[in-house]
Design a protein that fits this description.
50% strand; Tubby Protein, Chain A; 12-stranded antiparallel beta barrel
């Protein structure tokens, strides 16, 4: 079980807020430059170990490819405009991102992250809600992320111009991978518009 922490995006990397800590995730694209024409973004979790080389301890990173974030061409009639396909046995499940209006007569857009399974026709089928991301009136917080039970698990904020997620709940590594990948999908959907 992983403790609450803060994450921020720097180019293709997602770091924890721990000073001097190496990045925890790497993406195949720089987040700030994602656009509608992009179709696939690779998400890798970076795992570290200490290796000894010539008697000197060095930090070695191992990349674990956990998800492919997808944005299929709209003409194919996809179930989700943005979704994630698991690429590792450690990845919990496929999931999709859908937007909705949380309040009537509001232009604000919220997002639901839904677990997805494949039908016999190889199309994604919507299942249960994993997370919801709702816009907040507080200008320091962009979105509040809640789990399926409605419990607040994270807040998406901008700190000094950095895209930041403050995770306030304990969770497994697999759940955190889903949350971080869903966060990147939400940002991609917003930047592509």
């Amino acid at each position: 079980v992983l403790s609450p922490t803060t994450f921020y995006v720097a180019g293709r990397f997602i770091h924890s807020a721990d000073a001097g800590a190496p990045p925890l995730y790497e993406l195949s694209h720089s987040v700030g430059f994602l656009k509608d024409a992009d179709r696939n973004v690779r998400v890798e979790r970076l795992e570290y170990s200490i290796k000894r080389r010539d008697g000197v301890a060095q930090l070695a990173a191992r990349k674990r490819h956990i998800y492919d974030l997808k944005h299929p061409v709209g003409v194919t009639g996809p179930t989700f405009a943005y979704h994630a396909e698991p690429t590792s046995r450690q990845s919990l499940y496929a999931f999709g991102l859908e937007s909705f209006r949380p309040r009537r007569l509001s232009s604000a857009k919220g997002y639901r992250i839904l677990r997805a399974t494949h039908s016999q026709e190889h199309r994604l089928v919507r299942r249960d809600v994993l997370f919801s991301a709702l816009p907040v009136k507080d200008h320091s917080v962009r979105y509040e992320w809640s789990d399926a039970g409605g419990q607040l698990v994270a807040r998406e904020v901008d700190i000094d111009g950095l895209m930041t997620m403050v995770v306030s709940a304990t969770m497994s590594a697999g759940q955190r991978d889903v949350l971080i990948s869903a966060w990147m999908s939400r940002i991609w959907a917003e930047l592509a518009k």
